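Lab notebook page, bench 4
Experiment: in silico fold of construct C2
Operator: M.H.
Input chain length: 100 residues
Purpose: comparison with the prior construct
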Amino acid sequence: MDNLEEILKEANECLNCKNPLCRKGCPISTNIPEFIDAIKNKNLEKAYAILQRNNIMSDICSNVCPYEEYCTRSLCKRNKRKTCSSFKIRKVCKFMGKRE
């Protein structure tokens, strides 16, 4: 099981893009930058609320969403890399789903 320190490390890998393609790539338009910022600030309740804002089943979806086809794919296009293994949004979302 992931611990908070590991999740904070993952959240700090976020590129903080001016024009966040990850959000545009999300099929349900989750505010990923706001979610990651809440994690970075250790405000886990806010982070969970952001995930729940437009998807009340985010704890389940975090296990089945093909991130590599949506938000992560958008990041890869921006960074011109085939894989973006430095930032693992799935790991962060799954951690939040386990917390509630």
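Observations: Residues 4-99 form a domain with the Fumarate Reductase Iron-sulfur Protein; Chain B, domain 2 fold (CATH 1.10.1060.10). Residues 82-86 have pLDDT under 50 and may be disordered.
Next step: discuss at group meeting.
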